[in-house]
């Protein structure tokens, strides 16, 4: 949903950029949807659930010495192999649709988020007024808590179709909500409502009354709602344990979305993963970036990924009369991308052959490019974004 007027004003001032004012009164949200609640709504909200993080989280699957040299994908993978990570998973766990869950990135005092280290894929993309949001895809393993959950954006429709997913979110403004319910996946939408807890509940740290999902509890709730949760064809990604030839050393990358949102990924050679650092203060003039490790509140570990992929795609305004900034991304066809894995970077192309095709990486001549088996984090920046190569690569989002 569009941001509240006070937050919009504060963020606009922080970014030194003009923003269209958010109207004081919004169009009514359909009765079938529960809008996101802020701190002021807690007095009328139903009692919030208390959800404690798991004391002994299930470790994320890792590579084994017996990983096949030919890898997995991009065609069908054997039973018990997660087509989104290239790693072994419980076949029973894979006998369902992926869950696409919206997770907020602002305000900073709601960090660290819950559950990001349990996701198979995470997409970070620009939403409005300098902010970003995460779309986390859960398939090969569950998380007892994914939070804080926030509202949908137009970009999410790309991901729901690509991964044939169930969309779990906190609301949407009226025009987007209409588009979601009328879409081909309109019966796979999950928002808070009567009986949604324990799958989707409120929790109440510091009185903020935030929304959280338990992915393990979601299957029973989907069955209760008669939502199709059958396994889907998710082929398309290609995984090799050995890094491809042709990479350049890249121990670090920076992705700057705005003066309010910028992040860094450092390669940990011992663990073979990239570690996430997020901004801790605004840096309007590009002179004083300040970072801290972003951790996952479920397991206490730093957020990490085996692959970080920077996607350059065309942003545009789908609803210029919305009253506040509303953006979408054209994620059809193909475009430039950069794959970071094993401390190296590869200039590649992202490819989405059809609306329901899983996003893949290919070389200039169209051959599949291999992800490292494990979690992948996608940074979705504008097609005209500034790219500065080096041992530490820098990407600066340019819209459109």
What can you tell me about this protein's structure?
- With 400 residues, the chain is mainly beta.
- Helices cover 10% and strands 27% of the residues.
- It has helices at 5-15, 91-94, 156-162, 174-182, 215-224, and strands at 99-104, 121-126, 132-138, 166-168, 189-190, 200-203, 210-213, 248-249, 252-256, 262-268, 273-279, 291-293, 304-305, 307-316, 328-330, 333-341, 344-352, 360-362, 376-382, 386-388, 392-396.
Instruction: Encode the helix/strand succession as letters.
Output: HHEEEHEHEEEHEEEEEEEEEEEEEE
The averaged pLDDT comes out at 87
Major sheet description:
12 strands, mixed
The percent of residues in helical segments reads 10-25%
Rounded to the nearest angstrom, the distance between the terminal CA atoms is 21 Å
Structural class: mainly beta
Count of helices? 5
| Gyration radius, rounded | 20 Å
**Secondary structure: number of strands:** 21
Q: What fraction of residues sit in β-strands? A: 25-35%
Shape label: globular
List the quaternary state of the chains. single chain
Q: Low-confidence segments, ≥5 residues, pLDDT <50?
A: 1-58
Quick overview of this protein structure:
By secondary structure, the protein is mainly β. The protein contains 5 helices and 21 strands.
Q: Which features does this protein show?
A:
400 residues; mainly beta; 7-stranded mixed sheet; 5 helices
Question: Any chance you could write out the topology, listing elements then pairs?
Answer:
Blueprint: H1 5-15, H2 91-94, E1 99-104, E2 121-126, E3 132-138, H3 156-162, E4 166-168, H4 174-182, E5 189-190, E6 200-203, E7 210-213, H5 215-224, E8 248-249, E9 252-256, E10 262-268, E11 273-279, E12 291-293, E13 304-305, E14 307-316, E15 328-330, E16 333-341, E17 344-352, E18 360-362, E19 376-382, E20 386-388, E21 392-396
Parallel strand pairs: 1-4, 2-19, 4-5, 9-21, 14-19
Antiparallel strand pairs: 1-3, 2-3, 6-7, 8-17, 9-10, 10-11, 11-12, 11-13, 14-15, 14-16, 16-17, 17-18, 20-21
